[in-house]
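Please, structure for the following, as tokens.
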Amino acid sequence: MATWIERARATGYILSQRLVGADRARDICLAALDVQPGERVLDVGCGPAYYVAGLPDCEYFGFDTNSAQINSARARFGDRALFYDEPYTAERMRELAPFDKVFLLGILHHLDDAGCRSLLDLVARSLKPNGRVVALDTPLYQGQSTFSRALAKNDRGDYVRFTDAYVALANPSFSQIESRVLGDSITMPWSFFMMTMTGPRSPNA
């Protein structure tokens, strides 16, 4: 059961996400992923997983190494989803895959290039051939406002990249990548880079 401190931290995280517009960006990701009833959904770096409330009846598996946020997610959604206080690994892939849809929200900019390639390859191998992955990360890009760039450079992630670098990391694992920049506006001051990836080059057998 989540403690009151864990619940408070999760609430603070959700409020901070709303302040910079991340909740609106996640809504766009949810629409792009288009989870259908009965599908198997993997969420790597799920945090408190507050958006599970907006998903249809599906088989949801959330992974995060932050135990406080996982405990908060279990307290709220443990009756309709499974949560793992651990990294997503090849061992878990063999146990749980294949998946129809995968969330990678706010995780790639916390990983170095080797870590990104490894995770993206693992996710591609976890995906059904017609499955879909949506990633959302803090980016740098040409034409970015001074304020947005300052926010990006002060992100907690150590590997905030230019948008083309994210795409280059995903290319070896997916044959089709659609991307767009979100935010950098008054209502969504933070900038986000969304990739929708299909056509896994190494789909789960």
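Confidence is low (pLDDT under 50) at residues 4-17. The longest strand covers residues 127-137.
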